[in-house]
Amino acid sequence: MIVQPKIKGFICTTAHPLGCARNVQDQIDHVIQKGPVTGGPRKVLVIGASAGFGLASRIVAGFGCRAATYGVYFEKPAEDNRTASAGWYNTAAFEKAARANGLYAKSVCGDAFSDKIKRHVIKDIKKDLGQVDMVIYSLASPRRKHPKTGEIFKSTLKSIQGAYSNKSFDFDKNEVIQVSLRQATTDEIIDTVMVMGGDDWQMWIELLKAQNLLAPGCLAVAYSYIGPEVTQPIYRQGTIGAAKDHLETTARTLDKLMAQVGGRAVVSVNKALVTQASSAIPFISLYIVLLLKQMKARGIDEGCIEQMDRLFREKLFSGRLLQDIPVDDEGRVRVDDLEMLPDVQAAVKEIWKNVTTENVLRHGDVEGYNKEFLKLFGFGLPGVNYDEDVEIDVKIH
Ligand code: NAI
Protein backbone atom coordinates (compact mmCIF):
# COMPACT_ATOMS: atom_id res chain seq x y z
CA MET A 1 0.00 0.00 0.00
CA ILE A 2 1.15 3.55 -0.68
CA VAL A 3 0.93 5.41 2.62
CA GLN A 4 0.49 9.16 2.78
CA PRO A 5 -0.27 11.35 5.80
CA LYS A 6 -3.96 11.88 6.61
CA ILE A 7 -4.23 14.64 9.15
CA LYS A 8 -7.36 15.23 11.21
CA GLY A 9 -7.00 18.10 13.64
CA PHE A 10 -3.99 17.39 15.82
CA ILE A 11 -3.68 13.74 14.87
CA CYS A 12 -2.43 11.92 11.81
CA THR A 13 -4.53 8.82 11.19
CA THR A 14 -1.91 7.02 9.10
CA ALA A 15 1.67 6.06 9.88
CA HIS A 16 4.47 4.94 7.60
CA PRO A 17 6.24 1.73 8.68
CA LEU A 18 9.53 2.48 6.95
CA GLY A 19 9.47 6.13 8.02
CA CYS A 20 8.88 5.17 11.65
CA ALA A 21 11.70 2.62 11.40
CA ARG A 22 13.99 5.33 9.95
CA ASN A 23 13.05 7.67 12.79
CA VAL A 24 13.88 5.00 15.38
CA GLN A 25 17.16 4.14 13.63
CA ASP A 26 18.15 7.83 13.56
CA GLN A 27 17.63 7.97 17.33
CA ILE A 28 19.63 4.77 17.80
CA ASP A 29 22.43 6.21 15.67
CA HIS A 30 22.46 9.39 17.76
CA VAL A 31 23.00 7.38 20.95
CA ILE A 32 25.58 5.02 19.45
CA GLN A 33 27.52 7.95 18.08
CA LYS A 34 27.71 9.44 21.58
CA GLY A 35 29.31 6.24 22.90
CA PRO A 36 28.43 4.06 25.87
CA VAL A 37 26.77 5.48 29.00
CA THR A 38 28.92 4.59 31.99
CA GLY A 39 27.25 3.17 35.07
CA GLY A 40 23.86 2.84 33.35
CA PRO A 41 21.14 0.31 34.18
CA ARG A 42 21.17 -3.31 32.97
CA LYS A 43 17.47 -4.23 33.06
CA VAL A 44 14.89 -1.57 32.39
CA LEU A 45 11.10 -1.50 32.44
CA VAL A 46 9.64 1.34 30.33
CA ILE A 47 5.94 2.08 30.82
CA GLY A 48 4.83 4.15 27.81
CA ALA A 49 7.63 2.85 25.59
CA SER A 50 6.39 3.33 22.04
CA ALA A 51 6.66 7.09 21.41
CA GLY A 52 8.04 10.39 22.65
CA PHE A 53 10.14 10.43 25.80
CA GLY A 54 9.44 6.80 26.70
CA LEU A 55 10.69 5.49 23.36
CA ALA A 56 13.75 7.75 23.50
CA SER A 57 14.47 6.56 27.07
CA ARG A 58 14.23 2.96 25.91
CA ILE A 59 16.64 3.66 23.05
CA VAL A 60 19.20 5.25 25.39
CA ALA A 61 18.80 2.37 27.87
CA GLY A 62 19.20 -0.21 25.11
CA PHE A 63 21.82 1.29 22.86
CA GLY A 64 23.62 3.57 25.31
CA CYS A 65 23.64 1.29 28.37
CA ARG A 66 23.23 -2.07 26.59
CA ALA A 67 20.35 -2.78 28.94
CA ALA A 68 17.67 -5.41 28.46
CA THR A 69 14.44 -3.46 28.00
CA TYR A 70 10.83 -4.42 28.59
CA GLY A 71 8.26 -2.00 27.14
CA VAL A 72 4.58 -1.41 27.90
CA TYR A 73 2.57 0.53 25.33
CA PHE A 74 -0.92 0.98 23.94
CA GLU A 75 -0.95 0.98 20.13
CA LYS A 76 -2.97 -0.44 17.26
CA PRO A 77 -1.71 -3.03 14.74
CA ALA A 78 -2.61 -2.66 11.05
CA GLU A 79 -6.06 -3.85 10.03
CA ASP A 80 -7.36 -4.30 6.47
CA ASN A 81 -6.39 -1.07 4.72
CA ARG A 82 -5.62 0.86 7.89
CA THR A 83 -2.01 1.30 8.89
CA ALA A 84 -0.85 0.47 12.39
CA SER A 85 -0.31 3.41 14.73
CA ALA A 86 3.13 4.99 14.70
CA GLY A 87 4.04 3.57 18.11
CA TRP A 88 3.39 0.07 16.82
CA TYR A 89 5.87 0.53 13.99
CA ASN A 90 8.32 2.26 16.36
CA THR A 91 8.21 -0.69 18.72
CA ALA A 92 8.64 -3.22 15.91
CA ALA A 93 11.66 -1.28 14.62
CA PHE A 94 13.23 -0.84 18.06
CA GLU A 95 12.90 -4.50 18.97
CA LYS A 96 14.23 -5.69 15.61
CA ALA A 97 17.27 -3.42 15.94
CA ALA A 98 17.79 -4.38 19.59
CA ARG A 99 17.76 -8.09 18.86
CA ALA A 100 20.05 -7.63 15.87
CA ASN A 101 22.45 -6.02 18.35
CA GLY A 102 22.18 -8.89 20.82
CA LEU A 103 19.94 -6.99 23.24
CA TYR A 104 16.94 -8.43 25.06
CA ALA A 105 13.81 -6.49 24.06
CA LYS A 106 10.26 -7.54 24.76
CA SER A 107 6.98 -5.65 25.14
CA VAL A 108 3.34 -5.94 25.90
CA CYS A 109 0.65 -3.97 24.11
CA GLY A 110 -2.27 -3.12 26.39
CA ASP A 111 -3.63 -0.83 29.05
CA ALA A 112 -0.86 -0.09 31.54
CA PHE A 113 -3.48 1.15 34.03
CA SER A 114 -5.07 -2.32 34.20
CA ASP A 115 -4.27 -5.10 36.66
CA LYS A 116 -4.20 -7.54 33.76
CA ILE A 117 -1.26 -5.86 32.05
CA LYS A 118 0.55 -5.33 35.35
CA ARG A 119 0.23 -9.06 36.10
CA HIS A 120 1.47 -9.90 32.60
CA VAL A 121 4.55 -7.70 33.05
CA ILE A 122 5.28 -9.12 36.50
CA LYS A 123 5.18 -12.65 35.07
CA ASP A 124 7.49 -11.78 32.18
CA ILE A 125 10.01 -9.95 34.38
CA LYS A 126 10.10 -12.87 36.83
CA LYS A 127 10.64 -15.31 34.00
CA ASP A 128 13.07 -13.38 31.81
CA LEU A 129 14.85 -10.75 33.88
CA GLY A 130 14.49 -11.69 37.55
CA GLN A 131 14.55 -8.05 38.62
CA VAL A 132 14.82 -4.59 37.04
CA ASP A 133 17.21 -1.82 38.07
CA MET A 134 15.34 1.02 36.38
CA VAL A 135 11.63 1.77 35.92
CA ILE A 136 10.70 4.59 33.54
CA TYR A 137 7.14 5.86 33.70
CA SER A 138 6.26 7.86 30.59
CA LEU A 139 2.53 7.50 30.02
CA ALA A 140 0.51 10.23 28.38
CA SER A 141 -3.12 9.26 28.14
CA PRO A 142 -6.46 11.04 27.80
CA ARG A 143 -8.28 8.50 29.99
CA ARG A 144 -7.84 5.88 32.66
CA LYS A 145 -10.07 3.08 33.84
CA HIS A 146 -9.43 2.53 37.52
CA PRO A 147 -8.36 -1.09 37.99
CA LYS A 148 -10.21 -1.57 41.28
CA THR A 149 -13.44 0.45 40.88
CA GLY A 150 -13.82 0.37 37.09
CA GLU A 151 -14.48 4.12 37.16
CA ILE A 152 -13.38 5.98 34.01
CA PHE A 153 -11.44 9.21 34.45
CA LYS A 154 -10.84 11.62 31.59
CA SER A 155 -8.13 14.23 31.64
CA THR A 156 -8.93 17.76 30.54
CA LEU A 157 -6.85 20.82 29.93
CA LYS A 158 -8.39 23.76 31.70
CA SER A 159 -7.35 26.52 34.01
CA ILE A 160 -8.16 26.08 37.68
CA GLN A 161 -8.24 29.77 38.52
CA GLY A 162 -10.93 30.99 36.13
CA ALA A 163 -11.85 31.04 32.46
CA TYR A 164 -8.76 31.33 30.28
CA SER A 165 -8.28 32.95 26.92
CA ASN A 166 -5.05 33.33 25.00
CA LYS A 167 -3.39 32.97 21.64
CA SER A 168 -3.03 29.57 20.03
CA PHE A 169 -2.14 28.30 16.59
CA ASP A 170 -4.46 26.68 14.07
CA PHE A 171 -2.23 24.41 12.00
CA ASP A 172 -4.95 23.70 9.41
CA LYS A 173 -5.28 27.36 8.53
CA ASN A 174 -1.83 28.56 9.60
CA GLU A 175 -3.48 31.21 11.72
CA VAL A 176 -2.87 32.63 15.16
CA ILE A 177 -6.26 32.36 16.84
CA GLN A 178 -7.75 33.21 20.21
CA VAL A 179 -8.86 30.19 22.21
CA SER A 180 -11.04 30.43 25.31
CA LEU A 181 -11.57 27.68 27.82
CA ARG A 182 -13.91 27.80 30.78
CA GLN A 183 -12.66 27.20 34.29
CA ALA A 184 -12.22 23.57 35.31
CA THR A 185 -14.75 22.02 37.65
CA THR A 186 -13.58 20.20 40.77
CA ASP A 187 -14.44 16.88 39.11
CA GLU A 188 -12.32 17.77 36.07
CA ILE A 189 -9.35 18.54 38.31
CA ILE A 190 -9.75 15.26 40.21
CA ASP A 191 -10.19 13.30 36.99
CA THR A 192 -7.07 14.78 35.39
CA VAL A 193 -5.04 14.01 38.51
CA MET A 194 -6.33 10.44 38.44
CA VAL A 195 -5.17 10.02 34.83
CA MET A 196 -1.90 11.96 34.69
CA GLY A 197 -0.92 12.17 38.39
CA GLY A 198 1.14 9.67 40.32
CA ASP A 199 -1.56 7.18 41.38
CA ASP A 200 -0.83 4.58 38.72
CA TRP A 201 2.95 5.10 38.96
CA GLN A 202 2.69 4.35 42.67
CA MET A 203 0.64 1.20 41.95
CA TRP A 204 3.34 -0.04 39.59
CA ILE A 205 6.20 0.60 41.99
CA GLU A 206 4.41 -0.86 45.01
CA LEU A 207 3.54 -3.97 43.03
CA LEU A 208 7.07 -4.43 41.70
CA LYS A 209 8.43 -3.94 45.22
CA ALA A 210 5.93 -6.39 46.74
CA GLN A 211 6.93 -8.98 44.14
CA ASN A 212 10.62 -8.42 44.92
CA LEU A 213 11.31 -7.31 41.36
CA LEU A 214 13.22 -4.13 42.19
CA ALA A 215 16.95 -4.81 42.14
CA PRO A 216 19.19 -3.19 44.77
CA GLY A 217 19.83 0.42 43.77
CA CYS A 218 16.87 0.52 41.39
CA LEU A 219 15.96 3.95 39.99
CA ALA A 220 12.36 4.97 39.23
CA VAL A 221 11.83 7.98 36.96
CA ALA A 222 8.70 9.79 35.73
CA TYR A 223 8.43 12.87 33.52
CA SER A 224 7.03 16.28 34.28
CA TYR A 225 6.86 19.75 32.78
CA ILE A 226 6.88 23.30 34.09
CA GLY A 227 7.13 25.65 31.11
CA PRO A 228 7.01 29.40 30.65
CA GLU A 229 5.07 32.14 32.37
CA VAL A 230 2.78 32.55 29.39
CA THR A 231 1.32 29.03 29.65
CA GLN A 232 1.22 28.88 33.46
CA PRO A 233 -2.55 29.50 33.83
CA ILE A 234 -3.35 26.65 31.47
CA TYR A 235 -0.49 24.28 32.20
CA ARG A 236 1.17 24.38 35.58
CA GLN A 237 -1.71 26.15 37.31
CA GLY A 238 -4.27 24.21 35.31
CA THR A 239 -5.72 20.72 35.60
CA ILE A 240 -2.60 19.12 34.08
CA GLY A 241 -0.42 21.12 36.49
CA ALA A 242 -2.42 19.69 39.40
CA ALA A 243 -1.65 16.23 37.99
CA LYS A 244 2.06 17.07 37.68
CA ASP A 245 2.05 18.38 41.28
CA HIS A 246 0.59 15.04 42.30
CA LEU A 247 3.20 13.15 40.27
CA GLU A 248 6.00 15.11 41.93
CA THR A 249 4.54 14.54 45.42
CA THR A 250 4.28 10.84 44.57
CA ALA A 251 7.98 10.86 43.67
CA ARG A 252 8.79 11.94 47.23
CA THR A 253 6.63 9.12 48.65
CA LEU A 254 8.16 6.57 46.30
CA ASP A 255 11.66 7.82 47.02
CA LYS A 256 11.20 6.53 50.59
CA LEU A 257 9.90 3.21 49.31
CA MET A 258 12.76 2.85 46.84
CA ALA A 259 15.23 3.62 49.64
CA GLN A 260 14.28 0.25 51.13
CA VAL A 261 16.10 -1.39 48.21
CA GLY A 262 18.85 1.23 48.22
CA GLY A 263 17.20 2.94 45.25
CA ARG A 264 15.55 6.25 44.40
CA ALA A 265 12.49 7.73 42.74
CA VAL A 266 12.78 11.04 40.92
CA VAL A 267 10.87 13.16 38.49
CA SER A 268 12.66 14.68 35.53
CA VAL A 269 11.32 17.96 34.17
CA ASN A 270 11.73 17.77 30.41
CA LYS A 271 11.62 20.31 27.62
CA ALA A 272 8.46 21.15 25.63
CA LEU A 273 8.55 19.03 22.51
CA VAL A 274 6.35 18.10 19.61
CA THR A 275 4.90 14.72 20.57
CA GLN A 276 1.48 13.18 20.06
CA ALA A 277 0.60 14.22 23.61
CA SER A 278 1.72 17.85 23.39
CA SER A 279 0.28 18.53 19.94
CA ALA A 280 -3.18 18.08 21.47
CA ILE A 281 -2.64 20.97 23.89
CA PRO A 282 -3.79 24.41 22.68
CA PHE A 283 -1.55 27.40 23.51
CA ILE A 284 1.43 25.07 24.03
CA SER A 285 1.68 24.41 20.29
CA LEU A 286 2.07 28.15 19.58
CA TYR A 287 4.61 28.38 22.38
CA ILE A 288 6.58 25.49 20.82
CA VAL A 289 6.45 27.20 17.39
CA LEU A 290 8.07 30.30 18.91
CA LEU A 291 10.42 28.35 21.16
CA LEU A 292 11.75 26.23 18.29
CA LYS A 293 12.80 29.34 16.40
CA GLN A 294 14.63 30.80 19.40
CA MET A 295 16.38 27.58 20.38
CA LYS A 296 17.42 26.78 16.82
CA ALA A 297 18.79 30.32 16.39
CA ARG A 298 21.02 29.68 19.43
CA GLY A 299 21.95 26.18 18.26
CA ILE A 300 20.53 24.63 21.45
CA ASP A 301 17.37 22.92 20.26
CA GLU A 302 16.86 19.33 21.34
CA GLY A 303 14.46 16.53 20.42
CA CYS A 304 13.33 13.61 22.61
CA ILE A 305 16.48 11.61 21.98
CA GLU A 306 18.87 14.48 22.77
CA GLN A 307 16.89 15.16 25.95
CA MET A 308 16.87 11.57 27.16
CA ASP A 309 20.49 11.01 26.17
CA ARG A 310 21.48 14.02 28.25
CA LEU A 311 19.25 12.89 31.12
CA PHE A 312 21.01 9.53 31.31
CA ARG A 313 24.58 10.71 30.66
CA GLU A 314 24.67 13.98 32.55
CA LYS A 315 22.08 13.63 35.29
CA LEU A 316 21.14 10.09 36.27
CA PHE A 317 24.32 8.08 35.71
CA SER A 318 27.87 8.92 34.63
CA GLY A 319 29.28 7.13 37.62
CA ARG A 320 27.64 9.24 40.34
CA LEU A 321 25.82 7.78 43.31
CA LEU A 322 22.01 7.87 43.21
CA GLN A 323 22.03 10.24 46.19
CA ASP A 324 24.12 12.69 44.17
CA ILE A 325 21.74 13.03 41.21
CA PRO A 326 21.51 16.80 40.75
CA VAL A 327 18.05 18.14 41.61
CA ASP A 328 16.40 21.55 42.07
CA ASP A 329 14.92 22.91 45.33
CA GLU A 330 11.84 20.75 44.83
CA GLY A 331 13.88 17.59 44.33
CA ARG A 332 13.35 17.45 40.55
CA VAL A 333 15.95 16.63 37.91
CA ARG A 334 15.96 19.37 35.26
CA VAL A 335 16.64 18.85 31.58
CA ASP A 336 14.44 21.81 30.65
CA ASP A 337 17.41 24.04 31.53
CA LEU A 338 18.05 25.17 27.95
CA GLU A 339 14.38 25.90 27.30
CA MET A 340 14.22 27.94 30.49
CA LEU A 341 17.33 30.03 29.82
CA PRO A 342 16.38 33.63 30.68
CA ASP A 343 17.24 35.05 27.26
CA VAL A 344 15.26 32.33 25.45
CA GLN A 345 12.26 32.93 27.70
CA ALA A 346 12.51 36.72 27.41
CA ALA A 347 12.58 36.49 23.62
CA VAL A 348 9.57 34.15 23.46
CA LYS A 349 7.62 36.32 25.92
CA GLU A 350 8.23 39.46 23.88
CA ILE A 351 7.27 37.80 20.60
CA TRP A 352 4.16 36.22 22.15
CA LYS A 353 2.78 39.69 22.90
CA ASN A 354 2.88 40.73 19.25
CA VAL A 355 2.56 37.49 17.32
CA THR A 356 -0.24 37.46 14.73
CA THR A 357 -1.19 35.42 11.69
CA GLU A 358 0.66 37.97 9.55
CA ASN A 359 4.02 37.66 11.32
CA VAL A 360 3.99 34.14 12.81
CA LEU A 361 5.96 32.61 9.93
CA ARG A 362 8.70 35.17 10.51
CA HIS A 363 8.74 34.96 14.31
CA GLY A 364 8.09 31.26 14.72
CA ASP A 365 9.22 28.00 13.17
CA VAL A 366 5.90 26.72 11.81
CA GLU A 367 7.66 24.68 9.16
CA GLY A 368 9.92 23.07 11.75
CA TYR A 369 6.92 22.24 13.94
CA ASN A 370 5.05 20.68 11.01
CA LYS A 371 8.10 18.63 10.06
CA GLU A 372 8.46 17.34 13.62
CA PHE A 373 4.77 16.53 13.74
CA LEU A 374 4.87 14.53 10.50
CA LYS A 375 8.03 12.77 11.65
CA LEU A 376 6.10 11.39 14.63
CA PHE A 377 4.10 9.36 12.13
CA GLY A 378 7.05 8.41 9.94
CA PHE A 379 6.61 11.05 7.22
CA GLY A 380 9.17 13.37 5.67
CA LEU A 381 12.19 11.27 6.58
CA PRO A 382 15.11 11.36 4.16
CA GLY A 383 15.83 8.10 2.39
CA VAL A 384 12.23 6.85 2.49
CA ASN A 385 10.39 6.59 -0.82
CA TYR A 386 6.83 7.58 -0.01
CA ASP A 387 5.58 6.77 -3.52
CA GLU A 388 6.50 3.13 -3.16
CA ASP A 389 4.21 0.33 -2.04
CA VAL A 390 4.94 -0.75 1.50
CA GLU A 391 3.80 -3.67 3.65
CA ILE A 392 1.70 -2.15 6.43
CA ASP A 393 1.16 -5.35 8.40
CA VAL A 394 4.30 -5.38 10.52
CA LYS A 395 4.57 -8.00 13.24
CA ILE A 396 6.09 -7.40 16.64
CA HIS A 397 8.03 -10.44 17.79
P1 NAI B 1 3.62 10.36 23.83
O1 NAI B 1 2.20 10.58 23.46
O2 NAI B 1 4.65 10.61 22.81
O3 NAI B 1 3.81 8.85 24.36
C1 NAI B 1 2.93 8.31 25.31
C2 NAI B 1 3.21 6.85 25.54
O4 NAI B 1 2.26 6.34 26.48
C3 NAI B 1 3.09 5.97 24.29
O5 NAI B 1 4.08 4.96 24.32
C4 NAI B 1 1.72 5.29 24.46
O6 NAI B 1 1.60 4.01 23.83
C5 NAI B 1 1.70 5.13 25.97
N1 NAI B 1 0.35 4.98 26.52
C6 NAI B 1 -0.65 5.87 26.57
N2 NAI B 1 -1.71 5.35 27.22
C7 NAI B 1 -1.36 4.10 27.60
C8 NAI B 1 -2.00 3.07 28.32
N3 NAI B 1 -3.24 3.20 28.80
N4 NAI B 1 -1.34 1.92 28.52
C9 NAI B 1 -0.08 1.73 28.04
N5 NAI B 1 0.59 2.69 27.38
C10 NAI B 1 -0.05 3.86 27.15
O7 NAI B 1 3.86 11.22 25.15
P2 NAI B 1 5.10 12.11 25.66
O8 NAI B 1 4.92 13.50 25.18
O9 NAI B 1 6.37 11.41 25.44
O10 NAI B 1 4.78 12.17 27.22
C11 NAI B 1 5.36 11.26 28.16
C12 NAI B 1 5.46 11.97 29.50
O11 NAI B 1 6.35 13.10 29.36
C13 NAI B 1 4.13 12.53 30.01
O12 NAI B 1 4.08 12.40 31.40
C14 NAI B 1 4.23 14.01 29.64
O13 NAI B 1 3.43 14.83 30.45
C15 NAI B 1 5.71 14.24 29.89
N6 NAI B 1 6.27 15.45 29.25
C16 NAI B 1 5.97 15.75 27.94
C17 NAI B 1 6.47 16.92 27.37
C18 NAI B 1 6.19 17.29 25.95
O14 NAI B 1 6.41 18.43 25.58
N7 NAI B 1 5.75 16.37 25.13
C19 NAI B 1 7.33 17.83 28.16
C20 NAI B 1 7.67 17.34 29.47
C21 NAI B 1 7.11 16.22 30.01
CATH architecture assignment name: 3-Layer(aba) Sandwich
Count of separate DSSP helical elements: 12
Overall strand count: 13
The figure for the number of domains is: 1
Q: Tell me the CATH topology.
A: Rossmann fold
- In which range does the helix fraction lie? 40-55%
Poorly predicted regions: none
Bound molecules: 1,4-dihydronicotinamide adenine dinucleotide
Shape: globular
Describe this structure in words.
This protein is an alpha/beta fold. The chain has a single domain, classed as NAD(P)-binding Rossmann-like Domain (Rossmann fold). Helices cover about 40% and strands about 15% of the residues. It contains twelve helices and 13 strands. The strands form four sheets. Strands 5-4-3-6-11-12-13 form a seven-stranded parallel beta sheet, with helices on both faces. β3 (about 45), α2 and β4 form a beta-alpha-beta unit. α1 packs across α2 and α8 packs across α10. The longest helix has 21 residues, at about 240-260. The chain binds 1,4-dihydronicotinamide adenine dinucleotide.
TL;DR of this structure?
By secondary structure, the protein is α/β, with parallel strands linked by helices. Helix content is 41%, strand content 16%.
